[in-house]
Amino acid sequence: MTTDTFAESGADLELVGIHKRFPGFTAIEELNLTIPAGSFFALLGPSGCGKTTTLRLVAGLEAPTAGRILVGGTDVTNQKSFQRPVNTVFQSYALFPHMTVLENVAFGLRRRKMADPLGKAHEVLRLVELDHLASRRPQQLSGGQQQRVALARAIVNRPALLLLDEPLGALDLKLRRQMQLELKTIQEDVGLTFLHVTHDQEEAMTMADTIAVMNKGRIEQMGAPQELYELPRTAFVANFLGQSNLFTGPVVSTTSAGVAVDVAGHKIVVPAARAHRTTGEITIGVRPEKLTLHSAKPIHDADVNVMGPGRVTDVSFSGVSTQYLVEVPGAGTLIVFAQNMTFGSDVKFGDEVWVSWGVGHGFGLDDDPADAPRFEADFDTRSIAAQRHLEGA
Amino acid sequence: MKHSISKWVLPAYSALALLILMIPIGYTFVYSFNDSLKSNITWRGFTLDKWLNVCNVQNGAVCEAFGNSIFIGVVATVLATTLGTMIAIAMVRYRFKFRSQLSLFLFLPMATPEVVLGAGLAAQFLSIGVPKDMLTIILAHTMFCISFVVVAVKARVASLDPALEEAGRDLYGSALQVFLRITFPLLLPGILAAALLSFALSFDDFIITNFNSGAVSTFPKYIWVSAARGIPAEANVLASAVFILALIVVVTVQVSGAARAKRLEKLHHAGVN
Fold first, then answer.
1. B-interface mutation test, from A98, A100, A103, most B Cβ less than 10 A away
2. Cβ atoms of A308 and A298 closer than 8 Å
3. Is residue A281, in this structure, part of any structural domain at all?
4. What is the DSSP letter of B181?
5. A117 vs B contacts (CB less than 8 Å)
6. Does some domain include residue B37?
7. Which of A227, A260, A278 is the last residue of a domain?
8. pLDDT at residue A393, rounded to an integer
9. Both A181 and A291 in a single domain?
């Protein structure tokens, strides 16, 4: 859209039946997605899940094999990258090294022949608090400053849709937290639609209104961060977004209140409303921070699930909380996060313990249990570490 | 003991090496002021005549050869740099059939002895009936210069983050605008280096030129021919002039680069405070 007006506000993004095949593999398969105007939307997934390809399709840097892309109701599928009302903050920032910060920011405005490009560039540089460095070259700035210039260079054009390709990946943890909050504030200020691609589940949960978890070219689940965390639909989501203890077993009874599952001799109840399946073999789960450790068998309570006795096979202290691994015969290893409320730990390596959690905290997955991993410890951190390693290389 | 030897061995060795390298240049420069007659071998006294009347000897044959070399160098450089840059970008950015074979063919002129290349080319011109003149020299020089340009520019293209061009397109730049404002300025140092290299290679090429020049004289060819009966001092004048010119360019670039680095450093300190 090479008009000389800014987009008044963010626009909807609609992806209809998108397929993307590269020679030798399929990156995206039948992707349908609607992102409402003004929202902060995160596409979350491991590397190779198709999230960056999706972003590049929207930016016009790749063409879909099939399907349509609509921005604000206009079909842009056949428009070239420079014709689309979309701007991108690249993972590597891609700041032009031969131009000053100011000229970098004014680049898009100049191409569109907007009036007073330098004035507008200064204005947006003040927004990201970098106007005093306008005459510098990008390589003279720190990583965080470069990131802000990349953001300024994109939002100065007031795109209907702003695409962010893991823009915080290269920053250290403290700066990343700070930038997450700044980005969120800027998004609320300017009211643009943000599409943020990331593999960092914490980043997605902190910043986005809506998260779509992507895996193998398809969207596994979409919803508000809290909804996704508390009620994952698949084993992939349960383990990619945080950690989960998953168990598989046959349903032994179903009442209006709950679905009872037999897990290695333990009767575990999940509320019917939180179970996607209610018959046959099903996979159920619970988050590690919902579990409580007991050194003696707790008194029977219909609202509490109990597993045990098991043995503590690992204790690792991480400041705020302590992570315990508890081996329960037949049920596998459970992860328990306990907040450090007292000095030292009551539970030691090798102790015999029982694990309990409120019935209301459990969830039942929609997956076919045959495919669902019985338990995958640390899946998310390992895959993220592996991806960081790949990207760093 | 060992320490004290190492203190003077390296400086002495370096000084000696530099001296040996400088002797021919110094000789050429000094003998450009020689009041020579036919041959310029014995010192016959100081004069500025040769510098002032450089084009007046032998009906200006030295100057004509020199001018030809400059002309050929400039035309071959422009052609080779333009074509070579285009080939380099294509080879890095696109995947096409026979790409690796092309790479091999581009490497061949650099690996083949010049005598073979020159003779082979001369034979081809003969067999298709192209008369040897300025054009054939330019074609021959363009051919071998392209290889060096492709190698130099390819390295630069490979180090260019493709995201920069994508960012240009994303920021409303058409293909032409992205090339002119992003790709070309970023490749320019590599392209300039390649052009300088091409010019230098073309300017002092003798072997391939000798096979393909016909009656046209170039500066190296002139020196070669006149070496048999004594190189005139005018040749020394031109060679010295080129050397001094190159020296001035190098010093200017170095000094301005150092000044810029200083300025940037100052700016950086000012920004930090």
1. A98
2. no
3. yes
4. I
5. none
6. no
7. A227
8. 36
9. no
Residues of chain A contacting residue B184, judged by C-beta atoms under 8 Å apart: none
**Total number of domains constituting chain A:** 2
Which amino acid makes up residue A333? T
A61: nearest CA partner in chain B: B166
List of chain B residues whose C-beta atoms are within 8 Å of the C-beta of residue A141: none
- At CA A108, angle to CA A104 and CA A110, rounded to 5? 95
Provide the shortest C-alpha distance from residue B183 to chain A (in Å): 10
A208 close to A225: Cβ distance less than 8 angstroms: yes
Chain A's closest residue to B263, CA to CA, is A136
Which residues on chain B are in Cβ contact (under 8 Å) with A79? Answer: none
Q: What is the ipTM of this complex?
A: 0.77
- The minimal CB distance from A82 to the residues B174, B182, B185 is found for B174
In a domain, B36, yes or no: no
Entry pTM:
0.76
Residues A58 and A206 in one domain: yes
- CATH at residue A120: 3.40.50.300
Nearest C-alpha in A relative to B188: A98
- The answer to whether residue A6 is domain-embedded is no
Dist. CA A217–CA A32, nearest whole Å = 11
Helix spans in chain B (H): 2-31, 49-52, 61-93, 99-111, 114-127, 134-158, 162-170, 175-178, 184-203, 207-212, 219-227, 233-272
Say which CATH number the domain at A305 has. 2.40.50.100
Rounded to the nearest angstrom, the minimum Cα separation between B83 and chain A is 24
Would you state the pLDDT for residue A137? 94
Q: Is A4 domain-assigned?
A: no
Range of the domain at A35: 13-227
Residues of B with Cβ-Cβ distance to A140 under 8 angstroms = 264, 267-268, 271
Q: Which of A57, A61, A112 to mutate to test the interface with B (most CBs of B within 10 A)?
A: A61
Q: What are B44-86's pLDDT values in tens digits?
A: 888 888 888 888 777 778 889 999 999 999 999 999 999 999 9
The sheet that has A25-35: what strands, in order across it? A25-35, A13-22, A66-71, A74-75
Confidence of residue A370 (pLDDT cuts 50, 70, 90): low
Range with lowest mean pLDDT among A151-160, A275-284, A371-380: A371-380
